[in-house]
UniProtKB/TrEMBL annotation, chains A, C:
The lineage of its organism: Bacteria, Pseudomonadati, Gemmatimonadota, Gemmatimonadia, Gemmatimonadales. The gene is paaI. Pfam families: PaaA_PaaC. This is Phenylacetate-CoA oxygenase subunit PaaI. GO terms for biological process: phenylacetate catabolic process. It comes from Gemmatimonas aurantiaca. Coiled coil: none annotated. One of its GO terms (cellular component) is cytosol. NCBIfam families: PA_CoA_Oxy3.
Length: 250, 309, 250, 309
């Protein structure tokens, strides 16, 4: 598979899997306003994913459209980061996962608005406006929960600590990243780490939360297709209908 | 009283009643019950449809369904706001839902078993809801009437989307047609029950009609719904599960079979297939999320204190 | 579909779905000895299910074996009672579900050892020995938890109350049951209710638990294929591999 | 001391030490650690395999896997019993597992991602375990040696089943072969790590060898495992993911590449892909189930009291 396709799948799968996780908690949010906000984020991510996957399929040129890529790949062919496949947990966990992702996602999309490939630029330009709102919202929640009650502070700190080992993967560039960057369709992620650190440290400080120490052995492999045990269950639900009734229109 | 007389005159003259105006206590209470029940239905209604977002058959349908369920949360919000103008707090309304004191539409106590259920809910359940709500755009209470205008617009959009998704099934494989017919068989009668008990057994109706917060009777609306739905079903090429359904030339309406009101009463009383499950979902969202609401309140207080320093 | 096949599917699907629920809690039992016992029950039910489904497929004569029936029917074609598809809940809930089912199952199997069809008799004879142990075990646990601590008593009573509406379905005979009975492959269930009531009442009494009042509007429909929302998720997991890789040997 | 001398003489003469006999405190402690670590591994080992019971590809494989995982619970039980003969309670052993004081085999901190992983675990992980355990059937402590006889017999059965399921994949579709090769690629190195650090870095070994509770060194067992596995992999038609693997005529053994001991240390230290997940499972089974154990104990007490009345 070409590095271009591979790098687009990474973008598309992050959106698809995180929107799936958010879809699992529809109707179960603690505040009605958050139902709207959370569904909104899920919709944005799903919409972006459709664009990235469609472009991946188009460039691949083997007749796979966004649906074929979403519904007919098995777990080892998915390219999302491990962070976004983590199960929902409590609201603090959802907020931490979202904030870590959004902060990274926004930086990546801003970078993608400046690559040479205009198709990638166009999607990134649209998406980065949406994600600018996502990161404001999730960052606000980190602060509210961190600087809320003792219980919320504790939960928020636990969530930050538990998800911390999944952050480094977002900034590790492999051969695909390097090649996609050289091909004018991708960005290098390592250089974005400093800006991410600044935003996250400032936000955690405002939230009276402690920044965890660097992970000694960060978790990685998602974007190369080495996932955790949870993703298989996501796909079982996500793909059930297409696999049970293949080749039909809906 | 002169106030009461003046109130009724304004209602009779189709002048909207606004929040700060004088209104009979019974009018206020009836409206609170009616609006909040509608709001609760939007909230609980997210569950049976939300059940299929993760399993929608393609990405476009997934996005449409997610957006639809999001709209329902939005409708819940407008309607709670409309109820709040009558002097009841959202907290109190939520408490009534969580404790089971307040009702929500019984239709949401049926399970969504296949993808076709999602389309059929859009077509029939939203269709029945719109039939109920369109007259309420002209109801006497201003905030409610205005909320209904917005809700009806969105619901009509949902209904068209639901019907469109059924057209795809109707033109699809034998399995898809069977799935569609099966969903219709399960949802048809509960949809007819959405209009409430027969007029003969319906309470409060006369007063509500005088107040213009109920503009047509249950049976009138049900008949309109049947009349509207039959040709749509024919166009889809599916059979409504009612052997007694036929055009009555004399009445100029479709006759339809006897509704199983015992089932309706059982479901209203809490014994439908999903009543417990829905209430458990509502309760766990509420109680498991209490710490989040407390945290948000605590943070808001801290922020306000810092600003005044 | 013939009533014979239909009635065998009901037996087979009960075992398949309940063993699936038990499989979900493997490795998560509160006592190691119960890991063994619970897996043992799951294995027995799975084994019985394979026999019933194989016989159903054989009689149907359309080339479907037990695997085809287990892995390639969608939710509306499953014939298990609603009771067995209920999600696991806490240990008390698992115990109550198991006991209500076992007590019924044992009576049904004893009845089936006396039908005219020898294939059904053979399976029932083997299965009823296994299930005699199941019902002793689950009944013992009802007593231990009911007559244990205040907390366990409360949990056990809650479980009994929550599952009570699913009991009546087990004893409702429809046309299929009547015809299968007439054809010498099935039993009527209504006549078994008295024996079930006696066992359950005695057990609940020994457990210091209250027998709930009769359900006014009992839940039903499972054995005609009208399930709850949970079963679809069971099938998404159960059938994933077969549907993702159709037509392959494993 | 004379007791110590006599103890060592019996060990040297291959006479089994039994629970009531005198034994050095260090021997007892080492055995408790070794046996309980083995027991804990059986318990935690249920999780990665249990992950595929509900998703097994056919009913026969499902039954085989369920029975296998059940056997592991059984092994856990024998081994806890063997440890208990050394004067430690099951409660204490469980506490050590739950708090993370006691270790379990690091291999179970890797995820099972596809069905092929289940076969590969049977083949390689059980294979490595058997390689470790066969000599222990002759170890100096009677209850442990006897437990190992039973465990080895069942594990060999599991290993054959695992290998048989891989043969089906190896003869299957291109997708299945790819799934098999991929699983091998992920499990090969962690399997080699199961034998523990290289002899040069291994602690306690000399004393354990003298006590006959460790009869071969880590590297000896690892080499045997490699020598046994290479022809099995060839028979399956798959490639072990080690470019340095080749037959060394001179040594009469296969040479193999350098093991990434940094990864091993990271996983042992708690940073493997699934360490947290496994410990969360173990903890929630233990804490969420506390009320069940309390109830069983309370009921047993009540029953005993009634019987003495």
């Amino acid at each position: 598979m070409s590095v271009v396709v591979e790098s687009l799948l990474r973008l598309g799968d992050n959106g698809l899997i995180l929107s799936h996780r958010l879809s699992e908690v529809v109707g179960k949010q603690p505040i009605l306003e958050e139902e709207l906000a959370s569904a909104n984020v899920a919709l944005d991510l799903l919409g972006q994913s459709r664009l990235w996957l469609a472009l991946a399929g188009e460039i691949e040129g083997e007749g796979r459209d966004a649906d074929a890529l979403a519904f007919f790949r098995d777990v080892r062919a998915f390219r999302n980061a491990l962070l976004v496949e983590q199960p929902n947990g409590d609201f603090a966990f959802q907020v931490a996962r979202q904030f870590f992702f959004d902060a990274w996602h926004h930086l990546v999309l801003r970078g993608l608005t400046r690559v040479t490939d205009h198709r990638v630029r166009d999607i990134a330009t649209k998406a980065s406006k949406e994600v600018a709102y996502h990161v404001r919202r999730s960052g606000d929640w980190v602060v509210r929960l961190g600087d809320g009650t003792d219980e919320s502070h504790q939960r928020m700190q636990t969530a930050v600590n538990e998800l911390w080992p999944y952050v480094d993967e977002l900034f590790m560039d492999d051969e695909t990243d390097v090649a996609a960057h050289a091909a004018g369709v991708g960005v290098l992620h390592a250089p974005l780490k400093a800006a991410w650190d600044t935003l996250v440290q400032d936000t955690l400080a405002a939230a009276t939360l402690t920044v965890p120490p660097a992970s000694k052995w960060p978790q990685r492999g998602g974007k190369q297709g080495r996932h955790g045990e949870h993703l298989g269950y996501v796909l079982a639900d996500l793909q059930y209908l297409q696999r049970a009734y293949p080749g039909q229109s809906w | 009283s002169p106030e009461a007389r003046r109130f009724q005159e304004r209602v009779d003259a189709d002048i909207r009643i606004e929040p700060r105006e004088w209104m009979p206590e019974a009018y206020r209470k009836t409206l609170i019950r009616q609006i909040s029940q509608h709001a609760h239905s939007e909230i609980v209604g997210m569950l049976p449809e939300g059940n299929w977002i993760t399993r929608a058959p393609n990405l476009e349908r997934k996005a449409i369904l997610l957006a639809k369920v999001q709209d329902e949360a939005g409708h819940g919000l407008y309607l709670y706001s409309a109820a709040e103008t009558l002097g009841v707090s959202r907290e109190e309304l939520t408490r009534q839902l969580v404790t089971g004191e307040a009702k929500y539409s019984s239709i949401f106590n049926y399970p969504t078993l296949t993808w076709a259920d999602i389309g059929v809910i859009g077509w029939l359940v939203d269709g029945a809801a719109i039939m109920n709500q369109i007259p309420l755009q002209r109801c006497s209470y201003g905030p409610y009437a205005r909320a209904m205008i917005r809700v009806c617009k969105e619901e009509s959009f949902h209904q068209r989307q639901g019907y469109a998704s059924l057209m795809v099934l109707a033109k699809g494989s034998a399995e898809q047609k069977e799935m569609l017919q099966d969903a219709l068989n399960r949802w048809w009668w509960p949809s007819l029950m959405m209009f409430g008990p027969p007029d003969a057994e319906s309470v409060h109706s006369a007063q509500s009609a005088r107040w213009k917060i109920k503009l047509f009777s249950n049976d009138e609306l049900r008949q309109r719904f049947v009349d509207q739905t039959v040709p749509q079903a024919e166009y889809l090429g599916i059979t409504l599960p009612d052997p007694d359904l036929r055009w009555n030339e004399e009445r100029g309406h479709y006759d339809y079979g006897k509704i199983d009101w015992a089932e309706f009463q059982a479901v209203v009383a809490g014994n439908g297939p999903c009543n417990r499950q829905r209430m458990q979902s509502v309760n766990s969202a509420f109680y498991d999320g209490a710490w989040v609401r407390e945290a948000a309140a605590a943070h808001a207080t801290k922020t306000a204190e810092r600003e005044t320093q």
